[in-house]
Design goal:
Layout (H helix, E strand, L loop, with lengths): L4 H8 L1 H6 L2 H18 L10 H10 L25 H9 L3 H12 L4 H9 L11 H9 L5 H13 L13 H7 L7 H11 L4 H11 L15 H7 L15 H8 L6
Helix pairs in contact: 6-7, 7-9, 7-12, 8-9, 9-11, 9-12
Length: 263
Amino acid sequence: MDVDRREFFASVGVGALAAMSHEDRAEELEHFMIHRLDDSIRPPRKYADEEVKEMQEAVTRRGVGRLFVKGDGDPLEPMPKNATLEDFFRLRFAPANHVLQSAAHALQTGQPERTILACLLHDTVQALIRVDHGYWGAALFEPYVDERISWGIRYHQALRFYPDESVGYEYPELYNRMFGEDYVPEPYIKEAYEYARNHSWYMESRLITVNDTYGFQKGVEVSIDPFIDFIGRHFKQPKEGLGNDNSASAHMWRSIANPDRPL
């Protein structure tokens, strides 16, 4: 995806960007790209007037998930009683074109089903929260997937900053253009990378970053349908429905299902 540097800076504010850590800048850039991709399919949020827009932006912190930013005024469709992962994709994560494109590339290049599912899931938690999304995403899916999938999701957040020539993953040139060549990830990101790099499951996470770079193609829309069988084989769908099964992340699924609930 081509990113207009001036448009990105304007969306954040040069002053705000200067005050951000390197990790926060990279997160903001990724969110900007994902939103641009989704807006090409779904019309961007509309505000009644500029005053309402300014008020909304003033009270919304940048790390909040997309479902918790109201602006278009359209109510969310209720979730089914025994909601499945497919229901969440269609009713809460949609259009989710970035992760769908990422998974489609993994499928087209013949990668393992475990990798394809990890690519499909890796950024969906951003509907709930954006800050440290790798860690939140891992926690969301840990009760329902092979441990290697959630592990890969956790560490993809750190691995994006570090190249690996063995799989053709280069440091994103976009980061150099946006933030300069002195860009340095935060210490906890470096520590996470070093841990993952020396782990036997390293490639589980690295392959997410490889396919992540193919998930920002404008004009390419992918359906969830090709992945339904993968979900059926590799996702442990609770019979009670996600959010009703008393798992360690059930509260997260309930929050995504009902973001308007006050308490």
